[in-house]
UniProtKB/TrEMBL annotation:
Plays a role in the regulation of phosphate uptake. Residues 21-107, 125-210 form the PhoU domain. It is found in: Cytoplasm. SUPFAM superfamilies: PhoU-like (SSF109755). InterPro entries: PhoU, PhoU-like_sf, PhoU_dom. Keywords: Cytoplasm, Phosphate transport, Transport. This is Phosphate-specific transport system accessory protein PhoU. Homodimer. It comes from Aromatoleum anaerobium. The keyword Cytoplasm applies. It comes from the Bacteria.
Amino acid sequence: MPSKHTLTHFDTELEAIRKRLLEMGGLVAQQLSRAIDALGSGDMATIEAVIEDDRRVNEEEVALDDACIQLIARHGPTAGDLRMVMTMIQMITDLERVGDEAKKIAKAGKQIIGSEVIFVPKVELRHVAAMVVDMLQRALDAFARMDPSSSADIARQDKEVDAIFKGIMRQLITYMMEDPRLITRALDVLFIAKSIERVGDHAKNVSEYVVYMVRGRDVRHEGIEALERESGRR
């Protein structure tokens, strides 16, 4: 765990960054949910709002990165404190990329909503989208509590999301082979499915960062078994 400080400027600034990071996480999770909901309902206004919100996410990424750099420059943290700040910088990048994926979903959704229904393949995306939103929210909650116990479960969910994506891809290929008129919109659906799959990857990354912050061990390339050992250790 990060070293314990008395009440200092460092603690105050660090906590402010943590709070803003969690707020950024909440924003991108909301973006993703809204994009998927709008795709299902055909709500073009919400689609446009999701696209516009990406600017806020980008601005917050820049502001938080700068805040982290200034924190290091002013206070020169070492050991666990430095590890936490540097890992938060990585986490900020992953969250910004989730926002990018939500924007991609909204842009592809715009094309689908504007098309004739008969040329849009019927593929179920809501379930897998709900899965990755849940993964992201659980990873952010783990960060808020500095508790890595859910990291192995999130990694297992990510493997399930990968398998679902492969199934969707096979389904879309079949549609395109059977009716070439569906190809354009099928590709849009495929792009959306891939964005959802990528959000799962980013959620897993965030959960692994929590393990590193709490345990001091980088488990990004060590598999679920290592996550289970580290997330269950007291």
